[in-house]
Amino acid sequence: MTDTTEEEDFLRVDDLKVSFATMDGTVRAVDGVSYGVRRGQTLGIVGESGSGKSVSSMAIMGLHDAKRAEITGSITVGGRQIVGCPEEEVRKLRGQTMAMIFQDPLSALHPYYTVGRQIVEAYRIHHPNASKKEARTRAIEMLDRVGIPRPDKRVDSYPHEFSGGMRQRAMIAMSLVNDPDLLIADEPTTALDVTVQAQILDLLEDLQREFHSAVIIITHDLGVISQIADDVLVMYAGRAVEKGTVEQVLRRPQHPYTWGLLNSVPSLHGDAEADLVPIKGSPPSLLNRPSGCAFHPRCPYAGQNGDRSFTDVPELLPVLDDVGHSVACHLPADRRREIYQRDIAEAGVAL
Amino acid sequence: MARFILRRGSLALLTLFGVSVLTFFMFFAVPTSPAELQCGRDCRPAQVQNIERQLGLDQPLWTQYGQYMKGIVVGRTIGQGDTAIKCEAPCLGWSFRSSEAVSSIVGRALPVTISIVLGGAAMWALLGVSLGFISALRRGTWIDRSAIGFSLAGASLQIYFVGLLLQVLFVYTLKWLPTPTYTSPFESFGDWIVGMILPWTTLAFLNSAIYARLTRAQMLETLSEDFVRTARAKGLPSRQVYLRHALRAGITPIVTIFGLDLGVSLGGAVITENVFGMPGVGFTAAEAARQLNLPVVMATVLLAAFFIVLTNVIVDWLYAYIDPRVRLG
């Protein structure tokens, strides 16, 4: 299993920009994002709603309406270019080479078809020669694999007859039925109970080890990231503001936005009485992005380095002495370290 | 599933019973006496009384209702002595005006109406759903606008206008079609189609509008559903995404409206039948009402109620077939 592709990125996103023309103007949902995921690696993408994390993954799957979305930059999946690729070719990759799991499994499964039939459908699109019986056997096998009890019976159940966790398991079974090389999980546990969340994350980890696929987990929950991801990309207003390994981003966070995210997570080990500190303000409108650093209206440290926060868009640059860790912030590195040590460190350790 | 069907079925029977009671008693509120009608001009009160006794019209209403219902199920004898008339089941009464059983009048009219309505309904549903489907997928383009315009034109025109216009155009001017007439499809299938094509087209043009609008709205809604995104993410070709996932999910209200339309029309497409001069149930009912031929009117009203209840039951069953979540309730 150690071929050359091991070391290369299976998915490569370069300077991806996605914008939508609306009545009120152009919405720049993703504005120049780059990242890569290798097989066997899990990348977590974190951000608030509207940060562009889902839009970028939909672009990878080629699910944007070509008439409404303008996509530039480059997305390669297993070496194949997705941007500008004819719909029919991307369609063949969808569900086969790359698959997706969605947030709410109740609305993501068709209410009128049995779970089995939906899995069979997913299998047979990409295995046109498989008989219905073979596909059904495969569906039962997958349901068994994701931990659904009595899969030979449950294969004929409708989604509404499943519990929330079971539905998400079925959804995972459906997305993995064709052994995809890339799996994108868009908030896979957000709609679930906390106890079920942990089970689903465990399952995803197991399956990744087994199928050796590249995985992207999109979430706003840093707890999910710390449990399952190898690398993290923090997105804000359609751009990457911080990138690194889980260790780097959660233990040595560099960007004030990441600090804010960490501060708004309750800690099990810390002081239970301590107040959570929410990030002030709300995510910016993508129609009318703030000038300079998009985070400056909410950043307590904006303006500490002259006017650059208000005028220049910060570049994502490597963090000194921390290989693989990069951040897009105008604050000088020593100033960041100082603030972090003084105000933030406790919360970071909590995770 | 079997229990669901049974429960809905028995509920429908109950409804039919209620409707028949209501209709029956309503007819006694009409200020005409069937006996006087039968007696004719220059009728003495004694004669009227005599006829009333013979026909059982002097009996309490409930007894008369019982007689009527019994007639439908097993047949009955109307009147007494040598003027007694044997009325076979299903006996819907006797038309004194034309001296024949109401069931034979209805029996002649029903195939005409069924032909017009079933063919017309198939066409209007197909046309409406396809128009709506296409305009939803081509939203905002000229195809969308012309499809909606076309169906809007249909909805705002009247059948006696469009029907006559088409008849003048295709029958008298272009001479492409013969005057619409009913031929039994069992006698000559070709003649049946040719004779029916104008009423069908007219109905389709006029009735497809609501289906087009409904289908378009439903499709636009379901196309933004998560499960449609899932279907695309699986790699399904667009055609299957649209038909098997989006349309299937939005079809429920369309089936409802279709069931109601079908039920109402089967009870008699009054205007259509009159415009094309086709002696269907609606035509017969209108004529009977003009002549105060109460037994015939009564029978057509009951028949209309029967069809509405029947199609409603079928729609309920279809619901359960379409939406598995309904089977629970």
Automatic annotation (TrEMBL), chain A:
It is found in: Cell membrane. The keyword Nucleotide-binding applies. It is a peripheral membrane protein. Residues 11-262 form the ABC transporter domain. GO terms for molecular function: ATP binding. Transmembrane segments: none annotated. Keywords: ATP-binding, Cell membrane, Membrane, Nucleotide-binding, Transport. It holds the Pfam family oligo_HPY. Belongs to the ABC transporter superfamily. This is ABC transporter ATP-binding protein. It comes from Cryptosporangium japonicum.
From TrEMBL, chain B:
It comes from the Bacteria. Residues 110-319 form the ABC transmembrane type-1 domain. The chain crosses the membrane at residues 12-30, 112-137, 149-172, 192-212, 249-272, 292-319. InterPro entries: BPD_transp_1_N, MetI-like, MetI-like_sf. Coiled coil: none annotated. Keywords: Cell membrane, Membrane, Transmembrane, Transmembrane helix, Transport. It is a multi-pass membrane protein. It holds the Pfam family BPD_transp_1_N. It is found in: Cell membrane. Belongs to the binding-protein-dependent transport system permease family. PANTHER family: DIPEPTIDE TRANSPORT SYSTEM PERMEASE PROTEIN DPPB-RELATED. This is ABC transporter permease. The lineage of its organism: Bacteria, Bacillati, Actinomycetota, Actinomycetes, Cryptosporangiales.
